[in-house]
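Try this one yourself first.
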């Protein structure tokens, strides 16, 4: 089932404009954290062909606010063997109401500290 089919019947979907996106995990699961234009946290996760996007309430910058927030996309791919995607693949999966920035940032490996 494609994304457009899954969101059919939902009305008044306001566009979500992500202004900053940081890749926080480069392996399975692929994960990104971000901020929207209206100051919401965004949590994007892709694992086993399953893409989810959650957002926090506006101005809620508490830890895990997006991961505990509103699920705005829940998409299961036909290929459950997919565990990792890159930014370009992520862009291809985005529905019309979610706008990503032109690029992503990478988090420095947090476990490699001196």
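Now uncover the answer:
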């Amino acid at each position: 089932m494609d994304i457009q089919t899954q969101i059919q019947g939902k009305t008044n979907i306001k566009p979500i404009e992500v202004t900053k996106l940081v890749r926080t995990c480069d392996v399975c699961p692929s994960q990104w954290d971000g901020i929207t234009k209206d100051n919401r946290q965004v949590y994007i996760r892709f694992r086993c062909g399953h893409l989810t996007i959650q957002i926090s309430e506006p101005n809620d910058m508490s830890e895990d606010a997006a991961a505990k927030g509103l699920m705005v996309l829940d998409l299961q791919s036909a290929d459950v063997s997919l565990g990792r995607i890159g930014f370009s693949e992520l862009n291809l999966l985005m529905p019309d109401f979610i706008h990503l920035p032109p690029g992503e940032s990478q988090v420095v490996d947090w476990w490699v500290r001196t």
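Discussion: The chain has one domain: 16-99. The longest strand covers residues 16-25.
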